[in-house]
Amino acid sequence: MCRHLGWLGGQVTLSSLVLDPPYGLRVQSYAPRRQKHCLLNADGWGVGFFDSASQDGTPRRWRSPAPLWGDTSFDSVAPALRSNCVVAAVRSATVGMPIDVSATAPFTDGRWLLSHNGIVDRAVLPLSAKAESVCDSAILAAMIFERGLDALGDTIQEIGAADPKARLNILAANGSRLLATTWHDTLSILRRPDGVVLASEPYDNDSDWEDVPDHHLVEVTADRVTLTALDATEGP
Ligand code: GLN
């Protein structure tokens, strides 16, 4: 399904993360290398980032329902946008979900940015007036925000038990923490000297990329990367 990428580290340009790498999100929008559940990610894209000039820490978002590969405006401006913490995604909409900006990751509660790579039966999710869209990922994001990101692992285990067919790869950031889950899709880590990248698939052929095993929670802070196994055995 969708492909996403997170960054926590020094100040880097959005283009260096999303557009420039040989197999980065721009290329993944039309030629992903590890995508199992569909062919390409043409149903929009979004980049959210924390801005050191912002007084209150509100994240900035730039989203579009059009394919990333043709966005010449973002291509022009991205080299001038810098951040220490980024969540970006390219989207392949699940059948039946709306294709518009409000259904496009990253979602936010004003403090966190969140992307969902996967699919979940909306019947197992609580109704939320705060969901930005009727898209499954937007409703899931609202539920995760409501429960709090410290409970991310528990929330994913619970939803995974309620909907055994769900795919629940989450990526979230708040400016100083990057959190991710693997639940039936791929995720890789690159530890660079200037920070850490989490990505659905490697954006280049660097041999330092490590694959995260399925059913794990990943937490990245300024000084460490922690992997915790999630329990995928509990049935409803
Ligand atoms: N279900 C979500 C959507 O429709 C995410 C899809 C995906 O991961 N490809 O946008």
UniProtKB/TrEMBL annotation:
GO function terms (MF aspect): hydrolase activity, acting on carbon-nitrogen (but not peptide) bonds, in linear amides
One Pfam family hit: GATase_4
Keyword Cytoplasm among record annotations: no
Gene3D superfamilies per the UniProt record, alphabetical: Glutamine Phosphoribosylpyrophosphate, subunit 1, domain 1 (3.60.20.10)
CDD domains hit by this protein: YafJ (cd01908)
Top-level enzyme category: hydrolase
UniProt cross-references to SUPFAM superfamilies, sorted A to Z: N-terminal nucleophile aminohydrolases (Ntn hydrolases)
This protein's record includes keyword Hydrolase: yes
Top-level division of the source organism's lineage: Bacteria
Catalytic activities: gamma-L-glutamyl-hercynylcysteine S-oxide + H2O = S-(hercyn-2-yl)-L-cysteine S-oxide + L-glutamate
Keyword set, alphabetical order: Glutamine amidotransferase, Hydrolase
Recorded metabolic or biological pathway in which this protein acts: Amino-acid biosynthesis; ergothioneine biosynthesis
Record function comment: Catalyzes the hydrolysis of the gamma-glutamyl amide bond of hercynyl-gamma-L-glutamyl-L-cysteine sulfoxide to produce hercynylcysteine sulfoxide, a step in the biosynthesis pathway of ergothioneine.
Name of the protein in question: Gamma-glutamyl-hercynylcysteine sulfoxide hydrolase
Protein source organism: Mycobacterium basiliense
Gene that this polypeptide is encoded by: egtC
